[in-house]
Amino acid sequence: MSTDAPSPIRPTDDEARALARSLMDQARFAALGVVDPDSGAPMVTRVAFGTTPQGGPVTLISDLSHHTRALRAHAAASLLVGEPGSRGDPLTHPRLTLQVQARFLRHAEPGYDTMAAHWLRDHPKSKLYIGFADFSFALFDVKTAYLNGGFGRAFIMTPADLGL
Question: How far apart, in whole angstroms, are the C-alpha atoms of residue 6 and residue 82?
Fold first, then answer.
């Protein structure tokens, strides 16, 4: 008798790609997982979430936050997007985990003004603080993505699967 369980991972198809892309495009916040530079322990926080004009994940972030310091010390991070619906078991709703590498785009750097204008289209309340000197964009380069499309629908995805 074999003890090897069948893999729960399905081959990535166009339906999975479209679901993952829609989760990214519709998200306005995400859970961000970083490594605490003081303790080395994992740390999770909620951040505003959007996409760049090219479709990659991005957040507007303050130098005053602990998670920014963590990203500057260790750029590898994880983002989780996708919210449970108003009904049913939250674990049956789709969600996307992105393993990423962070890089920063600060005021006066090439591309900042374009990114700021793009960000403000979906996050108009950010206009109150986007110009503060301690704010910059954290751009996230996706390395791998894990889509849980609901019960029994798990996929491992590449940046190309996400259109990146």
Answer: 26
